[in-house]
Every structure is written in C-alpha cells, then in structure tokens.
C-alpha cells in the first residue's frame, strides 16, 4: 500500500477526531466564532490551492445569513488587493500548514489591523499564533497530496456555517465503507489515457471538482481543469467528442437535473464521462460510467462523502499512467516560496 492510500484510509478517523474535538473542548471555540460572525457583515476568505476553493462549500450558506462573502487567492489578494482591504471585514485565512507563503504574509499584514480567524492543521504555526481566533483542523500528520486535511477543512467549514456534528459522524461511518475499488478501477481504466480531464460541477460540489483538478495534476500528472456546468457551456463545450475525458459531479440538490443532463449530452457527443452522484437515476450510455455515493440529503456533505472515493480514483488513474499518487517531484508539501 502506498503512503498516500495509507493516509486516505485514515480519513474516517481524522473526521471523527475533528467531530470529537468540536463536540467537547473545541465547542467554546465554535461559540466564539458564532459571536464574531454575528458582528460582521462582510466575510473574506483567503487561501491557496485547496485552501482557496474549499470555502466554496459554504458560500451560499453564509450569504443566506446576510453576509457579503468574498473568496480570494491569497497571492492575488496580497499583491493587488491588500493595500485597499476593508479592515472592517472579518478575515478567515485558511492554510493547512499555517505557513503557506502568500497566506502567511496576508496574515502578518492584517494582524492588529483587522479581525483574523485562522483555520489550519499546524497548531504552533505562524498563522495560528497571529490569529484572533484559531480553529484547528485536526487532520493529523500528512505527507502526501492533501487528503485528510482537505476532508477536515471541508468539515470545519461545514461546522462554522452551522452544520451538524451528528451528520459529520454519519459521513465518517460512510467513509469507512465507501470505497468500491473494483468499480473505481474500471472507471480509471475507462478514462485512459487521461492525459487531460475536465471536472464539472455546480454549487458546493464545485469545491470537490476544483480539488480533483488540482490533485490530478499533482498526483497523476494529468492536465486538469475544473468548470462550473454553466461555464463549460460557454465555449469549452466545443472540445467534447472522441478523445475527450470528463468527470461530472451530480449531487442531489438544486441543479442535479442540469448536471445529469450535461453528463448525458457530453457522453452522447463522444466524450468518455465518469459520473459521481448520490442520485438513484442517472443517464445511461456506452460512454458513461456511474459511481454512486450514499445520499445525505445535503449538497454540502456530498464533497465530504466523496473524499475517499476520489482519492482512490486518483490513485488508480495515476497508477495506470505510471505514477505514484502523493509523491512530489518538483514541488513540496508546504509551499513556502511565492
């Protein structure tokens, strides 16, 4: 078993650890967060990579609470927006290591000038020390492509948007049995050669699509790009056809019918499509393979329920391409340079 798969198999326990922490000693931290959130109209998220796109999970939820929500690439924010930043906003800075170059510099620049909340795995990190409120991710040790820390970042975001600890426990139990490896191997073989893959989703599932695109580039050396379903219609749809590879995410929710329709159309046009869904009914076509997840009747929980499956899918696509997912050749686990 590779180091990456060993960490992936630890995901259910990592999620249980986070839930246990915020059910007990971390409960006071959550209450302090809710008090802070009540005081601010504008909420600004900054992060890089996984830490940038994960907050997409709760964007709608925070907007529903009457908050103005902005999500930024920390590097772009640092160099272009920071000088004019609204110090009256509440800043949520996300970095698994707490030492990511750009996000750390944003934290250092805002410290003492604006209210800062930091979500990180490393509890003794620079960012954790500078925070007005530090919320630990509790992902445990991780050396390969982000997996446990990605899951727990999503889970913590779900909690700060008012999510249920009980539901997180149910997701953890599902993750323990979610891997349908034979189906995943067949889907990986079907995607070959997977030189380039488009990942398509809408709503909270877009966080998962962007994570898959990022980790497939890191782990399988695949050219991966994530699109919203709407954005894919506006131009990129012209690339569909023989040789084209697509992953579609279609959770039960507001746009499930649109997501299923697109998966079917793309398959009918000649592209090979792997569809991940928690819906019972899905389009059928020789160019489409469907992997079903358990439904939790909440779009925000779909990306969490997908984590183990998407990591095994990455592992097998990488294996078939001659790579070991989770091994960094040119980059490193923590990016400390811009």
How is this structure best described in words?
The chain has 338 residues and is an alpha/beta fold. 45% of the residues lie in helices and 17% in strands. The protein contains 16 helices and ten strands. The strands form two sheets. A five-stranded parallel β-sheet has the order 2-1-3-4-5, sandwiched between helices. A five-stranded parallel β-sheet has the order 7-6-8-9-10, sandwiched between helices. Helix 2 (11-23) runs parallel beside helix 9 (148-160), helix 11 crosses helix 16 (307-320) and helix 12 runs parallel beside helix 16. It starts with a helix and ends in an 18-residue tail after the last helix. The model has no long low-confidence stretch (mean pLDDT 95).
In short:
The chain is 45% helix and 17% strand.
For this entry, give a set of tags:
single chain; 338 residues; alpha/beta; Rossmann fold; five-stranded parallel β-sheet; 16 helices; globular
How many domains, as an integer?
2
* Counted beta strands: 10
- Major β-sheet annotation: 5 strands, parallel
N to C succession of SSEs: HHHEHHEHEHEHEHHHEHEHEHEEHH
Topology diagram in text:
Layout: H1 3-8, H2 11-23, H3 27-39, E1 42-47, H4 50-53, H5 59-64, E2 68-73, H6 74-81, E3 90-94, H7 101-110, E4 115-120, H8 126-130, E5 133-136, H9 148-160, H10 165-175, H11 181-191, E6 196-201, H12 206-220, E7 223-228, H13 229-233, E8 245-250, H14 256-268, E9 272-277, E10 288-292, H15 302-305, H16 307-320
Parallel strand pairs: 1-2, 1-3, 3-4, 4-5, 6-7, 6-8, 8-9, 9-10
Helix pairs in contact: 2-9, 2-10, 6-7, 11-16, 12-16
């Amino acid at each position: 078993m590779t180091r990456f798969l060993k960490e992936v198999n630890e995901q259910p326990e990592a999620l249980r650890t986070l839930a246990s922490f915020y059910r007990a000693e971390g409960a006071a931290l959550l209450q302090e967060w809710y008090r802070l959130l009540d005081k601010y109209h504008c909420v600004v998220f900054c992060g890089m990579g996984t830490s940038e796109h994960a907050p997409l999970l709760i964007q709608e939820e925070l907007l529903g609470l009457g908050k103005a929500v902005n999500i930024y690439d920390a590097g772009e924010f640092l160099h272009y927006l920071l000088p004019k930043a609204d110090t009256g906003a509440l800043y949520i800075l996300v970095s698994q290591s707490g030492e990511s170059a750009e996000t750390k510099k944003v934290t250092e620049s805002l410290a003492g000038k604006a209210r800062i909340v930091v979500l990180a795995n490393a509890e003794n990190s620079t960012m954790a020390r500078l925070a007005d409120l530090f919320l630990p991710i509790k992902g445990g040790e991780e050396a390969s492509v982000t997996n446990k820390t990605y899951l727990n970042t999503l889970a913590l975001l779900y909690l700060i948007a008012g999510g249920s600890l009980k539901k997180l426990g149910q997701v953890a139990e599902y993750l323990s049995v979610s891997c349908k490896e034979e189906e995943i191997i067949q889907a990986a073989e079907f995607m070959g050669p997977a030189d380039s893959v488009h990942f398509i989703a809408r709503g909270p599932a877009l966080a998962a699509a962007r994570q898959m695109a990022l980790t497939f580039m890191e782990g399988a050396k695949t050219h991966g790009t994530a699109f919203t379903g709407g954005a894919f219609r506006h131009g990129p749809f012209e690339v569909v056809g023989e040789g084209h590879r697509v992953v579609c995410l279609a959770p039960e929710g507001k746009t499930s019918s649109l997501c299923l329709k697109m998966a079917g159309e793309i398959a009918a046009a000649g592209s090979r499509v792997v569809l991940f869904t928690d819906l019972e009914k899905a389009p059928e076509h020789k160019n489409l393979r469907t992997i079903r997840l358990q439904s939790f009747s909440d779009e925000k929980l779909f990306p969490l329920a997908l984590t183990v499956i998407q990591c095994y899918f990455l592992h097998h696509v990488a294996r078939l391409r001659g790579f070991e997912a989770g091994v960094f050749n040119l980059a490193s686990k923590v990016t400390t340079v811009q």
